[in-house]
Structure formats: structure tokens, C-alpha cells
UniProtKB/TrEMBL annotation:
GO terms for molecular function: thiamine binding. Pfam families: Ykof. Coiled coil: none annotated. Thiamine binds at residues 17, 49. It comes from the Bacteria. Residues 10-89, 113-193 form the Thiamin/hydroxymethyl pyrimidine-binding YkoF putative domain. This is YKOF-related Family. It comes from Salimicrobium flavidum.
Length: 198
């Protein structure tokens, strides 16, 4: 595999979903099958799925896989690392440019979700200013925001959450970060949500 950075601003995400159910294999394989992945380069192995392409398609696909499972009511956890700037290879470069609109719907599914995210704007200077500015952007999306160690905690509607995170990622990139990394951990239908006790 080439270790050279590609020239294109291809985005990517390595992510996993963990449904807390005996039927986890069906949930994982089913969600990947139900999701339209035609606008991204995709590879699934025993640990994660990696998607690469334009930012809007990377977010559309990761949101859809998570939502396919979350909307069934099963408790599901999601872990993702989004990156743009120095992918280290050029796999998927054919998925860059104007290749169409996001292919997955599910935009009107109403589902509450809790998450923590961490933003790493590299190479632009003033990284803490960028992080504080982008946390405020999540508040403007109507997402409840609170502090956590090494991350920011988020709570709210899942589609607003993904929209906000996509905006954060885009705006960080646009405002001068040469390599942006964002980690997200998310959970839906957690039993500990009810009354926040267990
Ligand atoms: C999005 C996503 N991609 C891959 C895995 C890894 N994985 C764990 S069990 C399983 C199905 C049986 O092979 C797979 C592919 C994951 N958890 N989530």
C-alpha cells in the first residue's frame, strides 16, 4: 500500500456499530446492506467499516448505518473516527468531486441519541479557539452540550446531531486546519437513559 498522502481532499471515516442484541450479526450486516453506499469507497472487516469520499457522503453513510439499527429500538453503540487532510493513501480518489446528492433518506426519523465528540484541528494554529467555536455550533443546532474529560458530551435528535457534526467537520476544515480528525462515540436506546440511574 502506498504511504504517500494523496493530493485530493478526500474525507474518510473508520467506524463500528455495536448492537446489544443476540441478533447483532443481522443488525450489522443488515444495516450495511440497507444503506446506499454507491457514493463512497467502502471496506468492511472484522473490526470496522471504512468509508472514503466527499464529506457529505461520508456523513450520510455513517448516519444511515447507525440509524438503521437505532430506529429498530435496540440499544446500539457507535464509534467513529472522521479524518480529512492526510489520509496516507489515495484509495477512493475516484469518489471525489461532484458525484451526486447524498443517497440515504431517514432524515425525518425522530430518535434521541447521546454522544461524546473530540475535535483535533491540526496544522492551522489556534486550535483551542477552533474547538470552542465548533462546540458552540453544536449548541446552535439545538443540541444539549456539556463538558466532559477529553471530549464534549452531546444530547439530542440524531439527525440534528449528525448535521451539526458534519458542519463542525466542514467548518474546521474550511477555516485552515490542514488535517482535521474528529472522534465520535454515540449511543441510542440505552437503558441507563431512562431516569439516568442505572
Ligand atoms: C459498521 C461496522 N463494521 C464492521 C464491524 C465489525 N463486525 C463485528 S461483527 C460483524 C458481522 C459479522 O461478521 C462485523 C462486520 C462492526 N461492528 N461495525
Amino acid at each position: 500500500m502506498s504511504q504517500q498522502c494523496g493530493n485530493s481532499r478526500i474525507a474518510g471515516c473508520s467506524f463500528s456499530v455495536h448492537p446489544m442484541s443476540d441478533e447483532f450479526v443481522e443488525h450489522i450486516k443488515g444495516s450495511l446492506k440497507e444503506t446506499d453506499t454507491s457514493n463512497v469507497w467502502i471496506d468492511t472487516d472484522e473490526v470496522t467499516t471504512t468509508v472514503r469520499g466527499e464529506i457529505e457522503h461520508v456523513f450520510d453513510v455513517t448516519r444511515a448505518v447507525y440509524l438503521q439499527i437505532a430506529r429498530s429500538g435496540v440499544h446500539v453503540a457507535f464509534n467513529a473516527t472522521y479524518s480529512i487532510g492526510c489520509p496516507g493513501d489515495s484509495e477512493g480518489d475516484q469518489y471525489t468531486g461532484d458525484i451526486g446528492d447524498p443517497a440515504n433518506g431517514l432524515r425525518d426519523v425522530k430518535q434521541n441519541t447521546n454522544a461524546k465528540f473530540s475535535l483535533y484541528p491540526m496544522g492551522g494554529g489556534d486550535y483551542m479557539d477552533v474547538i470552542y467555536r465548533e462546540i458552540d455550533r453544536m449548541k446552535e443546532k439545538g443540541i444539549e452540550v456539556s463538558a466532559a474529560h477529553y471530549a464534549t458530551k452531546l444530547s439530542g435528535d440524531v439527525n440534528a446531531m449528525f448535521e451539526g457534526l458534519e458542519d463542525v467537520f466542514c467548518e474546521t476544515e474550511k477555516s485552515g486546519s490542514s488535517h482535521t480528525v474528529m472522534t465520535v462515540t454515540m449511543s441510542a436506546n440505552s437503558p441507563s437513559e431512562k431516569g439516568k440511574r442505572s
